[in-house]
Design brief:
Helix content is 31%, strand content 26%. With 418 residues, it is of the alpha+beta class. The strands form two sheets. Strands 1, 2, 3, 4, 5, 6, 7, 8 and 9 form a nine-stranded mixed sheet that branches. Strands 13-12-11-14-10-15 form a six-stranded mixed sheet.
Length: 418
């Protein structure tokens, strides 16, 4: 599938004008090998805008929320949805700790003091192990280093700092025109496990130099999250620390988008392209995954039905296991469609499996059709598998993303804390 309608550009969260970043290793979690000769992965980052930004965010709907979520929501409410800087760490989620809010507030205060900006305009995020006390001392030492190191081309330092079990960094950015003015929008994401979003997913940060009102910024983010991040599932677990943050500083100097119309739609398309590509990267890097699964549900009577069915397929544990085994067990697709909480006629449903190695139709009008098992095995050898479901009941469609379920997923999560 192609999610590129705008020109992609380099730079991630630093692609847009006026955004700079930095990252470093501070030792939040004691390393297995403390030797000074070992270069450890960054575990904390900072990024900031040269000028004040309008900010929008969505958060996990898990009833257990990380302290950074609580503090970030409070800061945005206090600042009137304005932000200047974001500090984020990996290795420790700062969740379910008695002193969690105090530590998260301290992280904001440290950045605010070092940058001489209001504390409520600092956003904080954390990811990692739940229920372990976050040591503040390493962060206290790291903040001056991060502030001093802020640079317009250090997006990679930040992107690697938020990785946990991720095997690759995740960045994407595009440029687009608003009223003849070139704007840029880019982001970075982390996530490999504990991914089954509900209003947000993992940690995702998006920046733009497009001028757009805070109200429309939030509206656009909420709408696009529904059809991208919320259509992703790795393992059915909704994280306690999920957050998507979108910051707009207006430095492209376009006329501010303050009403819904053509320019707002262009902005939403750019936001969709970045978030859809980041969502796809998250799915492909699922813990232990060997295959990206992408389900497209067409012919639905409404968008919610299409979303529900596409996501039901990529969430199916049995289907995920079948894809790992490269077994065209299409009955598991029909099973997942059948228990989806949606209204449709199963007797109209068709299913097709596809990859760059070919395609096979496995179901028509709710019943199986003959196909070559040899060809099916060849199609499923690919590391990207597409499942097309047609309900033949309307004109709406939706896409959901997931991955196969492998032995390594259990190995990774069996000893995650240690």
């Amino acid at each position: 599938m192609n999610y590129q309608s705008f020109k992609s550009v380099e730079g991630g969260i630093c692609a847009a004008s006026g955004f700079k970043a930095s990252g470093t290793y501070c030792g939040i979690k004691p390393p297995a090998d403390p030797s000074p000769d070992i270069k450890h992965k960054n575990d904390i980052c900072l990024f900031a805008s040269d000028v004040e930004c309008n900010a929008a965010a969505v958060y996990t709907q898990n009833k257990v929320k990380g302290a950074p979520i609580i503090v970030t929501k409070a800061n945005l409410e206090k600042s009137g949805n304005k932000a200047l800087a974001v500090i984020a760490n990996s290795k420790n989620a700062n969740t379910c700790n008695a002193d969690g809010v105090e530590k998260a507030q301290a992280m904001c205060s440290l950045v605010a003091k070092e940058m001489n900006i209001p504390e409520e305009k600092v956003i904080v995020a954390s990811t990692g192990v739940i229920g372990q006390v976050l040591p503040l001392e390493p962060i206290e030492k790291a903040v001056p280093v991060l502030v001093k190191g802020l640079c317009y081309n250090k997006h990679l330092e930040a992107a690697t700092a938020i990785m946990t079990t991720d095997t690759v960094k995740k960045e994407y950015a595009v440029e687009f025109k608003i009223g003849g003015v070139t704007c840029k929008l880019g982001g970075m994401a982390k996530g490999s496990g504990m991914i089954h979003p509900n209003m947000a997913t993992t940690l995702n940060f998006i920046t733009t130099d497009c001028a757009i009102s805070a109200g429309l910024l939030q509206k656009a983010l909420s709408e696009i999250v529904k059809v991208t991040y919320n259509c992703l599932s790795i393992d059915g677990d909704t994280s306690t620390n999920d957050m998507v943050l979108l910051m707009a500083n207006g430095l492209a100097l376009n006329g501010e988008i303050d009403t819904e119309g053509e320019e707002y739609e262009i902005f939403k398309k750019a936001l969709f392209e970045v978030t859809a590509n980041l969502t796809r990267m998250l799915a492909k890097d699922g813990e232990g995954a060997t295959k990206l699964l992408e389900c497209v549900c067409d012919g639905a009577k409404d968008k919610d039905t299409a979303i529900t069915i596409a996501k039901s397929v990529v969430c199916s544990t049995l289907f995920k296991a079948a894809m790992f085994g490269e077994d065209a067990n299409w009955g598991r697709v029909l099973c997942a469609i059948g228990y989806a909480d949606a209204d449709f006629d199963i007797n109209k449903v068709g299913v097709k499996l596809k990859s760059e190695l070919g395609e096979i139709t496995v179901c028509r009008n709710g019943s199986g059709v003959e196909f070559s098992e040899e060809k099916a095995a060849e199609v499923l050898k690919s590391d990207e598998i597409y499942i097309f479901v047609n309900l033949n009941d309307g004109s709406e469609s939706a896409t959901a993303w997931g991955c196969d379920l492998t032995y390594d997923y259990v190995k990774i999560n069996g000893d995650y804390r240690t």
